[in-house]
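Please, structure for the following, as tokens.
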Amino acid sequence: MGNVVVFGNQKGGVGKSTLAVLYAWWLAEIQRRSVCVIDLDTQANSSKSLRQFTTGLEASRLFDQAAPTPLPAGGQAVSLVASSRCMADVELARPELVIPAFRRSVTRMAQDFDAVVIDTPPALGLRMSAALIAATAAVCPIELEEYSIDGVTDMLKTIFGLRQRHNPQLRLAGIVLNRFNPRSLRQKAAMQELAENFREFVIPARISIRSAIPEALAEEMPVWRLPKTAAREASAELMRVFELLQQRIDCSCGPAPEREVWA
């Protein structure tokens, strides 16, 4: 069974879809793993960046009680189950029917892929709940602003609540510090607050504000393929974060050990 990794935060604009897409590319190109990406966000940013890998299967179909045929692994670096206009209608469905159906669909995919990566909407609802109930690991990107820290607090409550009630296999793989501005005193203060309250969950590396990242995604490629010095710097930060994140995802022992130090 492959890992099922959910990228989620109950606040938008924190780089959730960006990191989900780049993580999937990193798994496929650097780790040589087969990856399926499921886009549950109606904004469909992940679907736009990965549209070259579309499978023709829409993510809304995964909530059908008659589960679709699992996607075959192989043939391309990433397999995309794209978002669609029907995705918002899922929120109106009966949870007791569609959540088990989604979980069965994801479980079948995890049998055929080394990893299933799920991008979620930026609000708690049926789709995010279904994703976390089907997941083995959750990643919470955060931008170091006051409201973002409030959002991650709510997200942690959701993760631990769903783990206790519905999915004991779910682990918080880590909080990822994204779009960090080293010149911002406000962000440095927020990082200190986050470290004091959630140190065992925070990945001890960070991703700075990098123009090369959105530029690469606009070109529908991972940033390490962009022939620029700025892209190499962004890639080095992303690689470090993903390596630390993957250590936690692949390890069954939960949060990272205390010997990890902040970069």
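Residues 20 and 89 are 23 Å apart (CA to CA). The beta strands are 3-7, 35-39, 54-58, 78-82, 115-119, 137-143, 171-180, 202-208.
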